[in-house]
Design brief:
Largest sheet: 6 strands, mixed
Strand order of the largest sheet: 3-2-1-6-9-11
Protein name: 5-formyltetrahydrofolate cyclo-ligase
Order of helices and strands: HHHEHEEEEEEEHEEE
Helix content: 25-40%
CATH class: Alpha Beta
Oligomer: single chain
CATH topology: Rossmann fold
CATH architecture: 3-Layer(aba) Sandwich
Structural class: alpha/beta
Strand content: 15-25%
GO molecular function, one term: ATP binding
EC number: 6.3.3.2
Cofactor: Mg(2+)
Catalytic activity: (6S)-5-formyl-5,6,7,8-tetrahydrofolate + ATP = (6R)-5,10-methenyltetrahydrofolate + ADP + phosphate
CATH superfamily: NagB/RpiA/CoA transferase-like
Length: 187
């Protein structure tokens, strides 16, 4: 299948999940993430502040800040580039032209390198870590030179065992995909 069709199918799947289901999936993702040495050892976490359609990242952000980690949110820059800026609870965020909440750029010291990057996406392949994002290529460009750990958090509705699309030369994989379950507490 082509990426755009899969992207639209993923958007439909996300719209069909209730907010309670999305929260349960992310709670399960957080539980899995918390058990990973990559999370435990990371001091600087890069993560997107999710849009209403997406799985809510606020739970991950709040947990990271609660346990003393530094959180960095991306800001879209010219040339489809990302710049990660420090974030604290109650910092003002503004919507960019895509509707994504971003930090307001201020004079801040150069942040430490991000140890762990939570990479968003709409579709994921377990066999090779490839992902389909929203189509702007921002994360693929950023990941080319990123040396930390790359993890995506997903729901089973958005994951396939084998990649069922044609990757392009600029597509960048993640190191690990965590798959949250709606009813993880019932296992």
């Amino acid at each position: 299948m082509d990426k755009e069709t899969l992207r639209q199918d993923a958007i439909i799947a996300l719209r069909q999940l209730t907010l309670d289901a999305k929260n349960a999936i992310m709670a399960d993702n957080l539980k899995q993430l918390s058990n990973l040495p990559d999370w435990q050892n990371a001091q600087n976490i890069g993560i997107t502040y999710s849009m209403p359609l997406e799985l809510p990242t606020q739970l991950i952000i709040n947990k990271a800040l609660e346990i003393g980690k530094n959180v960095y949110l991306p800001k879209c820059m010219p040339g489809h580039q990302l710049k990660f800026l420090p974030y604290q609870l109650n910092d003002q965020l503004v919507k960019n032209s895509f509707g994504v909440l971003e930090p307001i750029e201020q004079e801040v010291p150069t942040p430490a390198p991000i140890d762990l990057l939570i990479v968003p996406g709409l579709r994921f392949a377990c066999n090779n870590g490839m992902r389909i994002g929203f189509g702007g290529g921002y994360y693929d460009r950023f990941l080319v030179n990123f040396v930390g750990t790359k993890i995506s958090l997903s729901a089973k509705e958005l994951v396939t065992e084998q990649m069922d699309w044609q990757s392009e030369s600029f597509d960048q994989p993640v190191d690990r995909i965590l798959i949250g379950e709606k009813n993880a507490n019932n296992k």
